[in-house]
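Section 3.1: Structural characterization of target chains.
Under the original work plan, the team committed to producing a structural model for every single-chain target entering the pipeline before any wet-lab resources were allocated. The record below documents one such target. The sequence was received from the expression subgroup and is listed exactly as submitted; it comprises 148 residues.
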Amino acid sequence: MAGYIKAYISGTRGGFDGADGISSFELVIGVGASDREWLKPLYYANRETLKTTIWKIEKIIPDPENYENSIIDAFIAFAPGLFEGCEILQKVASEIGSSKSIDFTNPKTIPKSWNRLREKARPIFEKIPVFEANMLELRGREKYPRWQ
Protein backbone atom coordinates (compact mmCIF):
# COMPACT_ATOMS: atom_id res chain seq x y z
CA MET A 1 0.00 0.00 0.00
CA ALA A 2 1.35 3.40 -0.97
CA GLY A 3 1.27 6.50 1.20
CA TYR A 4 2.26 10.14 1.34
CA ILE A 5 5.77 10.94 2.52
CA LYS A 6 5.93 14.70 1.99
CA ALA A 7 3.84 17.74 1.10
CA TYR A 8 4.59 20.99 -0.68
CA ILE A 9 2.43 23.82 0.58
CA SER A 10 1.90 27.22 -0.97
CA GLY A 11 0.34 30.00 1.05
CA THR A 12 0.81 33.29 2.79
CA ARG A 13 4.03 33.78 4.73
CA GLY A 14 3.56 34.47 8.43
CA GLY A 15 5.42 37.17 10.33
CA PHE A 16 8.14 39.34 8.86
CA ASP A 17 9.35 37.87 5.56
CA GLY A 18 8.06 34.43 6.51
CA ALA A 19 9.90 34.25 9.84
CA ASP A 20 6.82 32.65 11.40
CA GLY A 21 6.34 30.02 8.71
CA ILE A 22 3.07 29.87 6.79
CA SER A 23 -0.14 31.54 7.95
CA SER A 24 -2.63 30.19 5.39
CA PHE A 25 -2.72 27.30 2.94
CA GLU A 26 -3.61 27.93 -0.70
CA LEU A 27 -2.39 24.76 -2.40
CA VAL A 28 -1.19 21.50 -0.85
CA ILE A 29 0.56 18.97 -3.08
CA GLY A 30 1.18 15.52 -1.65
CA VAL A 31 4.18 13.42 -2.61
CA GLY A 32 3.25 9.77 -2.58
CA ALA A 33 5.63 6.83 -2.66
CA SER A 34 5.44 3.18 -3.55
CA ASP A 35 7.57 1.69 -6.32
CA ARG A 36 8.08 5.30 -7.50
CA GLU A 37 6.97 8.76 -6.43
CA TRP A 38 3.98 10.73 -7.68
CA LEU A 39 2.62 14.18 -6.89
CA LYS A 40 -1.07 14.91 -6.45
CA PRO A 41 -3.04 17.98 -5.34
CA LEU A 42 -4.61 17.41 -1.92
CA TYR A 43 -6.12 20.82 -1.19
CA TYR A 44 -7.05 24.04 -2.98
CA ALA A 45 -8.05 27.21 -1.18
CA ASN A 46 -11.09 28.93 -2.56
CA ARG A 47 -9.10 31.18 -4.92
CA GLU A 48 -10.14 31.54 -8.53
CA THR A 49 -6.54 31.50 -9.81
CA LEU A 50 -6.11 28.05 -8.30
CA LYS A 51 -9.54 26.75 -9.28
CA THR A 52 -9.17 27.86 -12.89
CA THR A 53 -8.37 24.70 -14.79
CA ILE A 54 -7.85 24.40 -18.49
CA TRP A 55 -7.04 20.71 -18.20
CA LYS A 56 -7.78 17.87 -15.78
CA ILE A 57 -4.34 16.72 -14.62
CA GLU A 58 -4.76 14.82 -11.32
CA LYS A 59 -1.29 13.31 -10.93
CA ILE A 60 2.25 13.70 -12.18
CA ILE A 61 5.11 11.25 -11.95
CA PRO A 62 8.45 13.06 -11.74
CA ASP A 63 11.56 12.00 -13.58
CA PRO A 64 14.21 11.04 -10.99
CA GLU A 65 16.89 12.26 -13.41
CA ASN A 66 15.35 15.77 -13.43
CA TYR A 67 13.71 15.83 -10.01
CA GLU A 68 14.52 19.53 -9.55
CA ASN A 69 11.65 20.29 -11.97
CA SER A 70 9.05 18.26 -10.07
CA ILE A 71 7.72 21.10 -7.89
CA ILE A 72 7.34 23.65 -10.69
CA ASP A 73 5.82 20.93 -12.91
CA ALA A 74 3.30 20.13 -10.16
CA PHE A 75 2.31 23.78 -9.76
CA ILE A 76 1.84 24.18 -13.51
CA ALA A 77 -0.12 20.93 -13.76
CA PHE A 78 -2.40 21.48 -10.76
CA ALA A 79 -2.80 25.28 -10.72
CA PRO A 80 -2.35 26.46 -14.33
CA GLY A 81 -4.35 29.59 -13.55
CA LEU A 82 -1.30 30.93 -11.74
CA PHE A 83 0.51 31.00 -15.08
CA GLU A 84 -2.18 32.53 -17.32
CA GLY A 85 0.34 35.20 -18.37
CA CYS A 86 2.29 32.58 -20.32
CA GLU A 87 1.13 32.77 -23.93
CA ILE A 88 2.05 29.12 -24.55
CA LEU A 89 -0.42 27.84 -21.91
CA GLN A 90 -3.25 27.30 -24.42
CA LYS A 91 -0.93 25.40 -26.78
CA VAL A 92 0.03 23.05 -23.94
CA ALA A 93 -3.65 22.67 -23.03
CA SER A 94 -4.42 21.45 -26.55
CA GLU A 95 -1.48 19.01 -26.36
CA ILE A 96 -2.71 17.65 -23.01
CA GLY A 97 -6.25 17.15 -24.25
CA SER A 98 -8.22 14.89 -21.90
CA SER A 99 -5.19 13.30 -20.18
CA LYS A 100 -5.41 13.08 -16.40
CA SER A 101 -1.72 12.48 -15.68
CA ILE A 102 1.74 13.26 -16.94
CA ASP A 103 4.51 10.72 -16.48
CA PHE A 104 7.79 12.60 -16.88
CA THR A 105 9.62 9.26 -17.23
CA ASN A 106 7.61 8.53 -20.38
CA PRO A 107 8.21 11.05 -23.20
CA LYS A 108 4.93 9.99 -24.86
CA THR A 109 2.88 11.53 -22.04
CA ILE A 110 4.78 14.85 -21.85
CA PRO A 111 3.21 17.63 -23.93
CA LYS A 112 5.65 18.70 -26.66
CA SER A 113 5.62 22.35 -25.51
CA TRP A 114 5.91 21.59 -21.76
CA ASN A 115 9.60 22.54 -21.46
CA ARG A 116 8.93 25.91 -23.09
CA LEU A 117 5.97 26.49 -20.74
CA ARG A 118 8.12 25.58 -17.74
CA GLU A 119 10.75 28.16 -18.69
CA LYS A 120 8.12 30.86 -19.29
CA ALA A 121 6.46 29.97 -15.96
CA ARG A 122 9.69 29.92 -13.92
CA PRO A 123 9.82 33.70 -13.14
CA ILE A 124 6.22 33.53 -11.88
CA PHE A 125 6.88 30.36 -9.88
CA GLU A 126 9.97 31.87 -8.23
CA LYS A 127 7.70 34.46 -6.54
CA ILE A 128 5.30 31.86 -5.08
CA PRO A 129 6.05 30.98 -1.44
CA VAL A 130 6.45 27.19 -1.20
CA PHE A 131 7.02 25.26 2.03
CA GLU A 132 8.01 21.62 2.43
CA ALA A 133 6.61 19.32 5.11
CA ASN A 134 8.00 15.83 5.71
CA MET A 135 5.61 13.23 7.11
CA LEU A 136 6.91 11.79 10.37
CA GLU A 137 4.69 9.57 12.47
CA LEU A 138 4.50 10.48 16.15
CA ARG A 139 3.01 7.21 17.36
CA GLY A 140 5.66 4.88 18.74
CA ARG A 141 8.04 7.63 19.82
CA GLU A 142 9.04 7.89 23.47
CA LYS A 143 8.12 11.56 23.62
CA TYR A 144 5.99 13.82 21.51
CA PRO A 145 7.77 16.92 20.23
CA ARG A 146 7.77 19.82 22.66
CA TRP A 147 7.68 23.55 22.03
CA GLN A 148 11.23 24.86 22.03
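The first helix runs from residue 48 to 51.
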